[in-house]
Amino acid sequence: MAIGKDLEVYKKDPSVSRKAVVNGIAGGAAGMFAVTAVHPLDTLKTKMQTFPDSYRHSIQCFRDTFHSHGVRGLYHGLTPMMLGNMAKNMVVFMFYGICEDAVKFGYGLDHTSQMTPGQKALAGGLGGFATGSVLCPMELLKCRLQTQHQLALDCTVGENFQLARGPVHLAQQVLQLEGLRGLFVGLNSTLLKYVPGQAIYFGVYESMRSFLAKGDNRQQLSPVSTMVSGALAGMAFYTVMIPVDAVKSRIQVNATTIEPMKFVDTIMKIYKNEGVRPLYRGLGPALLRTAPGNACHFLMYEWVRQKLFSLTGG
User: How far apart, in whole angstroms, are the C-alpha atoms of residue 42 and residue 63?
Assistant: First the structure.
């Protein structure tokens, strides 16, 4: 069955408010579904980025994590990641739809289907500001939960350091020790990741949809074509943005042991002391995670979105 076969749904652009609600629900549902399946690979990515001297490759990281903590160790940080991905994807796709309408209006178009992939990329980048702002605290909690056991083993934390029992406990610790600003450590890095990153993400996705579409209708895509478009979009995002993500992870995790660092200072220190390679550590697990994750995500997103528009009358 083709995604979006009910073409009458797309003959008229939905209202901005309806599109925002539908996109948000569809994005949130798809985000929770996708992240649960691929979270272990995200754990490996984060640990390899944060502790480059401890892990030579992803297989060693998997083996050591599994040996020390079992299957549960691979799912450390899953709860904030699920909540974060639900929130992120609700915000991503809600504001993507809103920004689509803004760009459509700015270019004097009648329908979002008339927008080029470049215009879709612009809408994605604009939505990245909201995404980064909402997601920063979630990613901080996720990164610290994923790496706190390693920090304790390496003795790189102070005497007052306590392992957090979960995301709520960790959030309480951060608020108590660092204040509200502590939850937004790495905000600039997070914005730097998601503003250009989402422009790439949606630009590649819409470009592939146009390339694989039957005729000129991007709504008549097979499930396989939708999954291929989503997988390539996710891979493009991480291939380009992985150095930014690596720096962001260090800033957010190292804030527990040293004075908070700035993005430029951190990336220069990494380059001077360790070279370029650490900036791309974790790329393998990230690509292994993001290809199937985004394939499933966009398939679920388009399906839920279509059904919701059908139920609400377009």
Answer: 15
Structure confidence by residue, pLDDT tens digits, 184-231: 988 999 999 999 999 999 999 999 998 998 655 666 688 999 999 999
pTM: 0.77
CB atoms within 10 A of CB 259: 6
The CATH T-level fold of domain 7-311 is Mitochondrial carrier fold (1.50.40)
Q: What is the mean pLDDT of residues 36-49?
A: 78
Domain ranges of the chain: 7-311
Three-class SS string for the chain? CCECCCHHHHCCCCCHHHHHHHHHHHHHHHHHHHHHHHHHHHHHHHHHHHCCCCCCCHHHHHHHHHHHHHHHHHCCCHHHHHHHHHHHHHHHHHHHHHHHHHHHHHCCCCCHHHCCHHHHHHHHHHHHHHHHHHHHHHHHHHHHHHHHHHHHHCCCCCCCCCCCCCHHHHHHHHHHHHCHHHHHCCHHHHHHHHHHHHHHHHHHHHHHHHHHCECCECCCECHHHHHHHHHHHHHHHHHHHHHHHHHHHHHHHHCCCCCCCCHHHHHHHHHHHHCCHHHHCCHHHHHHHHHHHHHHHHHHHHHHHHHHHHHCCC
| Model confidence at 31: pLDDT above 50 | yes
Residue 313 falls in which region: left (phi positive, over 0), alpha (psi -120 to 50) or beta: left
